[in-house]
Design goal:
37% of the residues lie in helices and 13% in strands. By secondary structure, the chain is α/β, with parallel strands linked by helices.
Length: 566
């Protein structure tokens, strides 16, 4: 009703768990990192607890947007079920045909068979249970037993539990100690601090296209006191406050409108000096209003026709390997040795040819291909694709890359993540006895990839990687002429102007030349770019976002798929 009046694209304070509007406070960033880490490592449970309305569901939806296509997801939205009903729901979510005569053993056997088949195809399975504090002891014990399903090397099922603080009390019981010991990552999501409330409101308004301050900074503390810093309550109060300002034809919300909105939404709450807790009556009233307003919404991850497949970002930010920033230059390839300026012209084009109907690609890794190949040898192959001279042995790879205006990235991610970054990469594979070896993936198609090891080349089906590769890779990319390793929302620097120009080149933002701080519509446009490219829309300009901007801007260098260059 009020969106057109305030010049907004849509309602900024909807209580639907839209990950695009996720505000990454320090607490939320830490919780997301724990979820990512917990899903990455082998087996067990991941636990996320938090007060009602703290943002657990939205955070989980953000995680889902980043999971690669090789992850199968099962959701349980109503955890008040028996053991049989739990297993039947898992079967339904994973499209497993139920046995005619239902029993716990037969259902578990069907699930185990399905998990083994998925593992053989290189797929992972994650079970997510919301409102897990409502699970019975019997059901929790059955979930623990499901994590016993495994191969000789890997657990077959990862379970994510989302729940209110009462879940912690349940898991602390003596009879739950076996399950508690299997929790590999846990985090508690609390309310926003007073300092975060104003930034939270501005963030949601900016994403919705707001170009003028609608909530003065003087309202930050009263809003925090009225809501206790609970995001859902902030949304409800702010939505009603904007409606009130619209009805009175005000251009901003004032104290009177805010207090009236809080009174209508929360009853007559008393100001809370402690932002860490909200009165029980307030919470119950808000929950009732939430269910009335929200209705039923689907848990299925958003699919976007405008962006590439979602990617998963598993390691925490400190696991990114990046060399110091290159010296400023006029192009993305720093003006260092003469070879560097010729990178674009000397790069060979490597393409995976379309599959012919009669062609049968190898489905397993060829015996002895790249076996025992060292990282030094693979790095020589990778630099060759960039048109660089063969590097000496025993060198620091990132320092060598910097000399040619390049940077490096070493992570553990999915094949779809590499597809979106569209750069050749060194993959770390493992032999039958567990010994690592390294090979360059030079081109990537929909069902196949081209691998090179010195003079030997093999075009293989992607299934050949299933039992060899567990997500470890190393790639080179062209770093723009920036001195900042990271640019965070609200920060200043030359990177701000560069980002504005880069987004303008992609048709996502109209630069004014006066940008000095990462905020407002520039921040909103950047978060839209991150979201469309499968990245966490946290507004942080770091290596992953730079690589995607690099790729989207069609910068020089070899590609996994040259057709991906626009």
């Amino acid at each position: 009703m009020y969106t057109a009046y305030f010049g907004l694209y849509e309602s900024p304070f909807s209580i639907a768990p839209d990950p695009l509007y996720l505000y990454m406070s320090e607490h939320h960033r830490e919780a997301l990192a724990h979820l990512q880490y917990g899903i990455k490592i082998d087996g067990g449970f991941v636990l996320l607890t938090g007060e009602v309305g703290a943002g657990k569901t939205t955070l989980c939806r953000s995680l889902l947007e980043q999971l690669p296509e090789d992850v199968d997801i099962a959701f349980i939205l109503n955890p008040k079920v028996s053991v049989i009903e739990l297993l039947e729901t898992i079967c339904d979510e994973l499209h497993i045909e139920r046995p005619e005569e239902v029993s716990i053993k037969k259902l578990v056997d069907r699930i185990n068979t399905r998990l083994l088949e998925a593992n053989a195809r290189g797929r992972k399975t994650v079970l997510i249970i919301d409102e897990a504090q409502n699970l019975s002891i019997e059901v929790l014990e059955q979930l623990r037993l499901l994590t016993n399903l495994e191969t000789n090397r890997y657990k077959l099922l990862k379970i994510v539990l989302l729940g209110q603080p009462e879940l912690l009390q349940i898991l602390n019981r003596v009879e739950m100690r076996q399950l508690s010991q299997r929790i590999t990552a846990r985090c508690h999501l609390g309310p926003l601090d007073m300092e975060d409330v104003g930034a939270y409101v501005r963030h949601r308004l900016e994403i919705a296209g707001c170009k003028h301050p609608l909530f003065p900074e003087s309202l930050n503390k009263p809003l925090w006191q009225l809501t206790g810093g609970v995001p859902r309550l902030i949304n409800l109060v702010c939505d009603r406050a904007l409606l009130g300002a619209y009805a009175r034809e005000h251009k901003q919300v004032d104290h009177a409108i805010l207090n009236q909105a809080a009174s209508e939404v929360l009853g007559k709450p008393k100001p809370q000096g402690n932002g860490g807790r909200v009165a029980l009556a307030v919470g119950l009233a808000a929950v009732a209003l939430v269910f009335f307003a929200a209705g039923f919404w689907s848990w299925q991850p958003r699919s976007s026709a405008t962006g590439p497949p979602s990617s998963v970002i598993l390691p925490p930010p400190d696991k990114v390997v990046a060399s110091p920033p290159a010296e400023p230059a006029t192009d993305l390839v720093a003006q260092k040795p003469p070879e560097a300026a010729a990178v674009a012209e000397s790069v060979p084009e490597v393409v995976v040819k379309p599959q012919e109907e009669s062609e049968v690609l190898p489905q397993t890794w060829p015996v002895d291909f790249a076996s025992g190949r060292s990282m030094d040898e693979a790095f020589a192959d990778l630099t060759g694709l960039w048109g660089l001279t063969s590097p000496p042995g025993n060198l620091d790879f990132c320092s060598y890359a910097q000399d040619y205006g390049l940077d490096c990235l070493a992570r553990r991610d999915s094949l779809e993540t590499l597809r979106t970054m569209n750069r050749p990469a060194i993959l770390t594979l493992y032999g039958d006895t567990g010994e690592p070896f390294h090979v360059v993936m030079a081109a990537l198609g929909s069902d196949r990839a081209l691998f090179i090891a010195g003079e030997e080349h093999h075009e293989l089906a992607l299934a050949a990687l299933a039992s060899r590769w567990f997500g470890e890779y190393f790639l080179l990319w062209q770093r723009p002429p920036l001195q900042q390793d990271f640019l965070r929302p609200g920060e200043t620097g030359a990177s701000v102007k560069w980002l504005a120009q880069a987004l303008q080149g992609l048709g996502l933002y109209e630069a004014t030349g006066r940008e000095r701080r990462l905020e407002g519509s520039l921040l909103g446009a950047f978060k839209h770019f991150q979201f469309r490219n499968g990245l966490t829309p946290d507004g942080i300009l770091g290596p992953l976002s730079l690589i995607h901007l690099n790729t989207a801007g069609n910068q020089n260098g070899p590609r996994l798929d040259p057709r991906g260059a626009s």
